């Protein structure tokens, strides 16, 4: 039960009205949608490999040319998971009731399992991709954007924490007996993560956890 009188409201209805007026429709800032910096940073690491594999586009014999490339430039193997839109470098595949594991990590030595890698790339449709795109980097930008959507939930939480943190800092300026501490500055033992802690006159007084709930979730 909220003590609306202590908060400066003459009635519960007045408090509820003021509360409703402060609700945000969304906490999504411009940085919520896509982390472009991370995307292009991920691709810059493989710029040479991307350029090499680009030579397969519209090849008359993709499989043969791909085999030659991985023998001469084995580092391109580490880019294959990204082309398949996965982060793992060790990939397990059930192939006709047989479990196979492929290590697609970076190596400067020619792989001993060339046939397996070529077969894997053929069966996953990776080789056929080069007959259907005009530029591998453009394709990978799209892949990275898709993978980045999985990080939106975390970004949303961090964005809202910052928004609330900035608001608390501004409000606490008016109360010299209060001190705000963010999660990363807390050093006492606890079993649950705390977003903010407020000390009053040097003593621990308030624990705060923030979460943004969409209007749709509230109305369920």
UniProtKB/TrEMBL annotation:
<dbReference type="InterPro" id="IPR007637">
    <property type="entry name" value="Restrct_endonuc_II_DpnII-like"/>
</dbReference>
<keyword id="KW-0378">Hydrolase</keyword>
<dbReference type="GO" id="GO:0009307">
    <property type="term" value="P:DNA restriction-modification system"/>
</dbReference>
<protein>
    <submittedName>
        <fullName>DpmII restriction endonuclease</fullName>
    </submittedName>
</protein>
<dbReference type="GO" id="GO:0009036">
    <property type="term" value="F:type II site-specific deoxyribonuclease activity"/>
</dbReference>
<keyword id="KW-0540">Nuclease</keyword>
<dbReference type="Pfam" id="PF04556">
    <property type="entry name" value="DpnII"/>
</dbReference>
<keyword id="KW-0255">Endonuclease</keyword>
<feature type="domain" description="Restriction endonuclease type II DpnII-like">
    <location>
        <begin position="19"/>
        <end position="202"/>
    </location>
</feature>
<dbReference type="GO" id="GO:0003677">
    <property type="term" value="F:DNA binding"/>
</dbReference>
């Amino acid at each position: 039960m909220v003590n609306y009188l202590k908060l400066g409201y003459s009635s519960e209805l007045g408090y509820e009205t003021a509360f409703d007026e402060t609700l945000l429709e969304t906490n999504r800032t411009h940085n919520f949608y896509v982390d472009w910096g991370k995307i292009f940073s991920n691709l810059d690491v493989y710029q040479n490999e991307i350029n090499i594999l680009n030579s397969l586009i519209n090849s008359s014999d993709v499989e043969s040319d791909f085999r030659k490339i991985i023998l001469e430039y084995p580092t391109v193997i580490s880019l294959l998971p990204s082309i398949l839109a996965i982060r793992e470098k060790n990939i397990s595949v059930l192939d006709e009731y047989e479990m196979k594991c492929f290590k697609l990590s970076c190596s400067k030595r020619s792989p001993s399992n060339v046939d397996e890698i070529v077969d894997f790339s053929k069966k996953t449709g990776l080789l056929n991709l080069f007959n259907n795109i005009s530029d591998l980097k453009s394709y990978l930008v799209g892949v990275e954007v898709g993978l980045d959507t999985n990080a939106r939930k975390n970004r949303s939480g961090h964005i809202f924490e910052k928004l609330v943190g900035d608001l608390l800092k501004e409000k606490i300026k008016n109360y010299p007996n209060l001190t705000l501490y963010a999660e990363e500055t807390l050093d006492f033992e606890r079993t649950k993560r705390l977003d903010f802690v407020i000390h009053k006159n040097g003593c621990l007084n308030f624990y705060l956890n923030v979460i943004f709930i969409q209007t749709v979730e509230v109305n369920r």
